[in-house]
Amino acid sequence: MCNSDKNVYTAWPKFDRAHFKIQKIMIHDMISLKSLITMILFIACFAFSQVSCEKNTEDNMSPPEDRCIEGISFQMDIKPIIESKCIQCHNGDVQPLDFKNYQTIKNNAARVKTLTASRVMPKQGSLTEEQIKLIGCWVDDGAPNN
Known about the structure:
146 residues; 6 helices; single chain; mainly alpha
């Protein structure tokens, strides 16, 4: 080996255990810094979402629009709907339920409410939102014969 080759090899830095230990600490510190930044961002997002939810809760404190109308009359409100939309099928001839009879309607009131609200019934034609609401409120009120 010539002298110049020897100088090339000695010019390279020596890598010993201390050097690798320093690199390991630096990598560990970078990971810790990333974890810290991630945690700070998570806390900030969580805090922001809580403030946002509180504001939305306060804004939605207005009374719900789907409150029932009081004083719904079977004779004045419900019977006309039944006669115009339900009797064609539920007259005792086509379907076994005879809605010409109040007691049959009352006994099936919860089912009538569910089927009209889900728009399964009436099969022929349809009910307006107001009619569906009237039926639902009347049923919720105990389906009185008034």
